[in-house]
Write a structure and sequence with these properties.
By secondary structure, the protein is an alpha+beta fold. It is built from three helices and seven strands, in the order αβββββαββα.
């Protein structure tokens, strides 16, 4: 397991923005081909309903105005450099990191993942939860 894989598996604490209510602190981590989020008290609880398959990720957006959820949450522009969103065909995962170095590691990983999927020419398959975004 690479250093980055271990880092992502251990995860980090992010603010997760939601449709309803304010942002909530969540532990976010990558294991077994999925990105998970859970309450801090739950350790590394792996629930499918609180996860997205990495194969389902179609894009990554940067900044605090990049998705409807982020815009509706009225995230202050001073946090723009700390925010990113992961897009799948079913949902977005909208996050704010504690610092720029943490965000950079996570974004670099997900950008590479999405870029590789686009280069492989994956097209939408209704039986796969991924969709290609140009």
């Amino acid at each position: 397991m690479s250093e980055l894989s271990r880092y992502l598996a251990e995860g980090g604490v992010f603010l997760k923005y939601c449709r309803k209510g304010g942002p909530k602190q969540r532990r976010v981590f990558v294991r077994e081909g999925r990105i998970y989020w859970c309450n801090l008290q739950e350790g590394h609880k792996q629930e499918e309903k609180r996860s997205i398959a990495l194969t389902a990720l179609s894009d990554i957006y940067l900044g605090c105005t990049s998705t409807e959820i982020m815009r509706n949450s009225k995230v202050p522009l001073e946090f723009d450099s700390l925010c990113f969103s992961l897009q799948s065909n079913l949902r977005t995962l909208d996050l704010k990191s504690r610092d720029g170095a943490v965000k950079t590691k996570w974004v670099k990983y997900f950008k590479a993942l999405v870029s590789n999927r686009h280069q492989e020419g994956k097209t939408f398959n209704p039986y796969d939860t991924a969709r290609r975004v140009e």
